[in-house]
Please model this.
Amino acid sequence: MVVRPFRSRKPKSSPLWKCFHAHFDHFTAAYPRDYQSRYGVLRGVIPEVVDKFMQCGDFAKGFARVRCDECSHEYLLAFSCKGRWFCPPCHQKKVQIFGAILAESILAAVPHRHFTFTIPQMLRSYFRFHRGLLKPLCRIAHQCGVVRSQARRLKSSSIVRLNRGASRRDRGAS
Model:
């Protein structure tokens, strides 16, 4: 393994950070008037996640001093938000760790199949406003895979991931 020198990232130079810094306050103020009727109430977790993202990697919000026992080299490491899905550097780290755990500890050395279960478009808005139904829906999708596998005399297991991307209508396409 090649050891590279540590380079501190500069989160405030990121285009995503700049965009949220410039526009998120206006967005949250305008949300009830402009978006709430279409997308529902702005969930409290969203401003919380954005606030953590805005503080991620900021030395003013806290840091650790890291020291190599062998060569005594030291550097400062800013605390991260440890956010998943939203903060790109933190998400990338979690995805890499999860992938390594899957490959080393969970998945058997057998062929695997990837299946995509799609919610019909006419039901998507219902699940958007009734998020508690997503977990039972995932269980049903898993059970469908089990039944399909049993019919073919195969063993089955699932790793379920929800993709909450915008529908074509939400992106403005016709």
Observations:
- The chain has two domains: 1-81, 110-164.
